[in-house]
Amino acid sequence: QVQLQESGGGSVRSGGSLRLSCAASGPIAGWTYMAWFRQAPGKEREGIAFISPYGGTTYADFVKGRFTISQDNAKNTLYLQMNTLKPEDTAMYYCAADGGVYCPPHEYNYWGQGTQVTVSS
Predict the structure, then answer these.
(1) Pairwise CA distance, residues 99 & 76, whole Å
(2) 45-93, pLDDT tens digit by residue?
(3) What pLDDT is attached to residue 113?
(4) Shortest CA distance to 45 belongs to which of 57, 60, 29?
(5) How many angstroms separate the Cα of 35 from the Cα of each of 13, 16, 32, 115, 120?
(6) Bridge partner list, 37
(7) Cα separations (Å) of 13 from 8, 43, 72, 87, 120?
(8) Number of neighbouring beta carbons within 10 Å of residue 21
(9) Cα dihedral angle (17, 118, 79, 93), rounded to 10 degrees?
(10) What pLDDT digit, counting tens, does each position of 14-41 carry?
(11) Strand-pair category, 46-51 with 18-24
């Protein structure tokens, strides 16, 4: 049973940057798809960035060019670098594992507790 723990959320002004981290309790190298999702109040959880076991990345259109997903296999850690943040990026951000690219949340088997990102104008 893999446990995931996010960190790095916070409050920033529009145009700012944050880097989220997701520490896994076990090895992630070559293991499975991992992803970042987010959920804003009153909205459904949505996938924003996906990384394959071989390092291929896929992004939702609304974050493409601003967010970068990566992983450090030596540290068993997944990252999400978020640049040029907008107020509409305000949400709880979750890392997830053991799913697939563009899969809906219910197809991911492991989840962290989430970290809040708030972007003010």
Answers:
(1) 17
(2) 999 999 999 999 999 999 999 999 999 999 999 999 999 999 999 999 9
(3) 97
(4) 60
(5) 25, 22, 10, 14, 25
(6) 47, 94
(7) 15, 22, 28, 8, 5
(8) 17
(9) -160
(10) 999 999 999 999 888 888 899 999 999 9
(11) unpaired
Retrieve residue 33's tokens: 């798809």
Q: How far is CA 55 from CA 29, 43, 51, 62, 74, in A?
A: 9, 29, 6, 21, 14
97 band by pLDDT with thresholds 50, 70 and 90 = very high
Q: Please tell me the distance from the alpha carbon of residue 35 to that of residue 102, in angstroms, as a whole number.
A: 9
Under 8 Å CB-to-CB from 42, ≥6 apart: which residues? Answer: none
Gap between the Cα atoms of 82 and 19, Å rounded = 6
Residue 118 — very low, low, confident or very high, per pLDDT cuts 50/70/90? very high
